[in-house]
Amino acid sequence: MIGKNVEFAAELLALGKTVAIPTETVYGLATNALDEEAVAEVFKIKNRPTFDPLIVHLDDFGKAELYAKSIPDEFKALAEAYSPGPITFLLPKNEIIPYIVTSGLKEVAIRIPNHPMALELLQSIPFPLAAPSANPFGFISPTSAEHVYKTLGRKIPYILDGGTCSVGIESTIIGMENNQFTVFRKGGISVEQIERVLNEKVHVKEGSTKTLKAPGMLESHYAPKKPIFVGNIEELAEQHKKERLGIISFKKEYIQGFNLILSKKGNLEEASYHLFSYMHQMDESGADIILSEYVPEEGLGRAINDRLRRAAAKSGYVNT
Ligand code: TXA
Ligand code: MG
Hints:
By secondary structure, this protein is α/β, with parallel strands linked by helices. Helices cover 30% and strands 18% of the residues. The protein contains 10 helices and 15 strands. It has helices at 6-14, 36-46, 73-82, 99-102, 116-124, 145-152, 191-198, 233-239, 268-284, 301-313; strands at residues 2-3, 19-21, 28-32, 55-57, 87-92, 107-111, 129-130, 158-160, 172-177, 180-185, 203-204, 228-230, 245-249, 258-261, 289-292. Strand 9 and strand 10 form a beta hairpin. Helix 1 packs across helix 5 (116-124). It is globular. Threonylcarbamoyladenylate (TXA) binds at residues 23, 25-26, 28, 52-55, 86, 88, 90, 102, 105, 107-109, 111, 113, 131-133, 170-171, 173, 184-185, 213-217.
């Protein structure tokens, strides 16, 4: 069921049920983070391997002290600047957070979503919410209640509808590695924005499973059901001219096939807002394959390119 009843969502969560919730990035599949059985159910619903840990959502960064042993001052400064917002912090967990949430890791991922309904919900319950993105494992993340309904609608009792997600791409994950501030996943807060607050360069993990501390960055991820090829659209169209093409271009319109444009103005915020939603639309369209192109590798463009690369990895072909 889809609805806007925050109180009802809170009641279900208090019973250990799973509820899809809106955030500014993507919809989350939320449950009581302190209830191990409830968390196990989320892994099951998503068909997610238990080695891939979940983010814990709070309504106030001040509450991170309830679940983390310590918090570096630099993270407090980042939270001050960007929380609530699309940034997730890896912090040494205390004993309150069950290991199933962190997949056995000693650190817990914590974020404050910047969405009025999510915040209202979090304020109304006495426990934090563990919430991965509300998509079956390996699929495109949902940026609307309808996206969630399409794939998980029959598996969960309630989808809290907070409209379309304003950012449209997942949160940036920052932690420490070898005593260095490290971005483990590029997302809604750009690396440049982080460096501006920290006043130093951060390390950015480009990576796949093998190199990453957290396995969530599996190479093939965020993938549409249809094959997607990323590179020079005209060349790709020539190579695939026998097929019905769906094109997701950055700002230019191409004549071949069904073309969705991420941002005519070339604005990267607008492009990330549209990215996953366009992938969903392409999956539903008559196109046989999807062609796309990389956007400028700066600001949010780095997160967009990261998602395109991972989506294309499933097609076994990446034209970088
Ligand atoms: O924007 C977001 O972060 C969304 C919304 C719903 O908040 N959530 C989200 O969750 O993207 P999910 O589960 O799809 O991705 C979370 C990522 C995974 O790649 C996971 O590996 C990483 O966070 N992660 C979670 N806990 C971690 C930990 N303790 N250490 C390292 N990585 C962690
Ligand atoms: Mg996800």
